[in-house]
Amino acid sequence: MLKNIDPLLNAEVLQALRAMGHGDRVVVCDTNFPADSVARETLTGKLLRIDNVPAPRAVAAILSVLPLDTFVDDAAMRMEIVGQPGELPDVQREVQAEIDRAEGKSWPMGSIERMEFYEHAKRSYCVIATGERRFYGCFIFRKGVVAPDGQ
């Protein structure tokens, strides 16, 4: 165990998040996402897991150590519902709350059409599968920078 590190962040996930550079993207996905096949096309080339927890809990753990990129408009993105791109299901509202909590302010997510989301995911640094069983529990986060003061 480590102090001040969420216990959901296993060694493989921590290593990937640490290795990512400014602007690299991490995908956090639900159980229905084609995680393994998409992960094989990412920079890490393998699927990472935070099992048995819903997406909002996994996102809270990840954002406890991963700063979001303040230089771009797409630092936090969600997969759009097919045919209803403006609708936000509960899982996305809950993840929005975790983003706002981690950043200490309102930080609205952008959205990506489903098939385009898959293409963005393939070009990401890594994919982290969660135990989220609700539909559209899929997100992409772009890593920001940590200032010299550690914030």
Name given to the CATH homologous superfamily: RbsD-like domain
Spans of 5+ residues with little confidence (pLDDT < 50)?
none
Order of helices and strands: HEHEHEHEHEE
Number of strands: 6
Query: Can you tell me the CATH topology?
Result: RbsD-like fold
Which assembly state applies to the chains in this document? single chain
What structural class results from the helix and strand content? alpha/beta
Please give the radius of gyration in angstroms.
Answer: 14 Å
**What strand order characterises the main sheet?**
2-5-1-6-3-4
How many individual domains? Answer: 1
**Mean pLDDT value:** 96
Keywords: Isomerase
GO molecular function: D-ribose pyranase activity; fucose binding; L-fucose mutarotase activity
Protein name: Ribose ABC transporter
GO biological process, one term: fucose metabolic process
Summarize the structure.
This protein is α/β, with parallel strands linked by helices and 151 residues long. The protein is 30% helix and 17% strand. The chain has a single domain, classed as 3-Layer(aba) Sandwich (RbsD-like fold), CATH 3.40.1650.10.
